[in-house]
């Protein structure tokens, strides 16, 4: 079965991102396929490379990157929600006249159309929200 995840919760302030990550690993361990993850609303903060949790805590951004590297899972971030919350790629920073950025590959800024495409490509789209 093909799964997609919609993550709407902020890291470290809501359980949604951690639950989504655990669910992703469980799905893959059972032989299913994870087509992609779409970060929306406060979930876009999972992509910020400025996140610096204590060393004894799971770094959620690094965990999502590892999931991408090990299983080729797309990590799409809603561009409208991200820009509104200060999560910005290098190209968008240039476009908007900012000196800094905090989002880089494998996370990719995309529109809501990508969420619809993800929904069409999977058998189940599971939402993780607060």
């Amino acid at each position: 079965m093909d799964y997609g995840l919609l993550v709407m919760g902020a890291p470290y302030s809501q359980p949604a991102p951690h639950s989504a990550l655990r669910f992703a690993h469980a799905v893959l361990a059972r032989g299913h396929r994870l087509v992609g993850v779409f970060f929306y609303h406060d979930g876009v903060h999972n992509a910020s490379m400025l996140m610096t949790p204590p060393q004894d805590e799971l770094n959620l951004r690094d965990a999502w990157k590892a999931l991408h590297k090990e299983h080729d899972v797309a990590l799409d971030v809603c561009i409208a929600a991200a820009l509104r919350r200060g999560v910005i790629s290098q190209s968008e920073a240039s476009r908007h006249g900012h000196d800094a950025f905090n989002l880089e590959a494998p996370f990719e800024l995309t529109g809501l159309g990508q969420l619809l495409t993800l929904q069409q490509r999977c058998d189940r789209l599971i939402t993780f929200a607060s």
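Helices lie at 16-29, 60-71, 79-84, 90-95, 112-121. The radius of gyration is 14 Å.
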